[in-house]
Specification:
By secondary structure, the chain is α+β, with helices and mostly antiparallel strands. Helix content is 58%, strand content 11%. Strands 9-8-7-6-10 form a five-stranded antiparallel sheet, with no helix packed on it.
Length: 367
């Protein structure tokens, strides 16, 4: 090494670095006269064309610097490759996640579409039923207006202007309308004896209400009797109106009862809490339930009356393969989930009692 700084007292003199560098800023240089000095890197020049860093880094020979530069280049390429792979991986993951979200949205929309379609079908059915009822009501109103027109015409026209012929014609027209209405009434009464197969209760209720309106409009006893037969009430306006209000609750009653029966582990008390609200129409909703639902209700009622094993109960083991199956024991303590039983056959033994779960025991029956 040669001291290249003009301000250094050894300027122009050469020396050799024979010891490890103490830091990144200085070198220990041995000069020709044997003196060893600590010289700054910035004051030295390499005789072998080594690269001297202008920063605070160590000084390396040229061949080392080239190797380091090659390693840095290789490291930089490796970093770029890993970065590229990471970007591709993230893009793939994001694409997969986006596809999954889109698929979930499509499925959700399909379910929503199906639900709306079913609701539209039910709504259309209800609209059709209401339209049929509305048409019948319109016909009743038209018939009522026609009767009033004929009555007014007979009352307003002088008898000498109408004459016997016109009075007879008005009477014939009125009789014809009444006869047609009575024929329809007879048809509805026949339907009451054999109701439609689908949605029978709702159809009969609507028919009964239509007959009630017809009876009110025409003051017709036969129509009133037919409405009473269909609705299952007395043939009076008040009784029929009260019965119609009861039957309006029928769809909701059936829906609520089926909902509670569908619950896992449904008990008789849960069913009764709902059923007692509709006790007045019990026969009506009972006819709407399936045989399986009726059997379930009966089994819940039977189970609600079964005695429960508790303290003081005389029991035997429920497992027929256990010797205690035929032995007699008494529950002496109720521990909640378990029961403490004292067995008669263990009276002479050191162990006289044992603990059992309630389902492991049965009521003892003499053999």
């Amino acid at each position: 090494m040669t001291v290249s700084s003009l301000s250094h007292p050894r300027y122009g003199e050469s020396g050799v670095i024979e010891a490890d560098t103490p830091n990144n800023y200085q070198q220990i240089v041995t000069f020709a006269d044997g003196e060893r000095l600590l010289v700054n890197n910035s004051d030295l020049a390499d005789l072998n064309d080594a690269i001297v860093s202008e920063s605070s880094e160590r000084t390396y020979p040229k061949e080392y610097s080239e190797a380091i530069a090659a390693l840095k280049e290789q490291h930089q390429q490796e970093l770029e490759r890993l970065s590229q792979e990471m970007r591709i991986g993230l893009q793939t993951e994001a694409t997969a996640r986006a596809e999954e979200q889109v698929q979930e949205q499509i499925q959700s929309l399909q379910r929503l579409f199906k639900q709306h379609k079913e609701e539209n079908i039910q709504l259309q059915q209800r609209l059709n039923e209401m339209e049929g009822l509305r048409q019948l009501e319109i016909e009743n109103q038209q018939l009522h207006r026609r009767i009033q027109e004929l009555e007014n015409a007979v009352e307003q026209r002088p008898s000498q202007q109408w004459g016997n012929t016109m009075t007879q014609q008005a009477t014939k027209a009125l009789n014809k309308q009444v006869k047609l209405a009575l024929e329809k009434t007879i048809d509805l009464r026949s339907l009451a004896q054999e109701p439609p197969k689908e949605n029978a209760q709702e159809c009969l209720r609507l028919m009964g209400m239509a007959l009630k309106n017809l009876a009110s409009a025409m003051n017709n006893t036969q129509a009133l009797e037919a409405a009473a037969i269909i609705l299952g009430s007395e043939p009076t306006q008040g009784a029929i109106a009260y019965r119609a209000e009861q039957l309006e609750m029928l769809p909701q009653a059936v829906s609520d009862i089926r909902a509670v029966l569908a619950k896992p582990g449904c008990t008789w008390q849960e069913f009764w809490n709902v059923a007692q609200e509709y006790e007045v129409i019990k026969q009506d909703y009972w006819a709407e339930l399936t045989s399986e639902e009726i059997e379930l209700i009966k089994s819940l009622e039977i189970a609600s009356h079964l005695p429960i094993i508790g303290k003081g109960s005389i029991v035997a083991h429920a497992d027929p393969y256990r010797t205690l199956y035929v032995e007699r024991g008494e529950v002496i303590e109720d521990l909640g989930e378990e029961l403490m039983v004292a067995w008669d056959c263990w009276k002479e033994q050191s162990k006289k009692t044992d603990r059992y779960f309630r389902e492991e025991l049965r009521f003892w029956q003499p053999q």
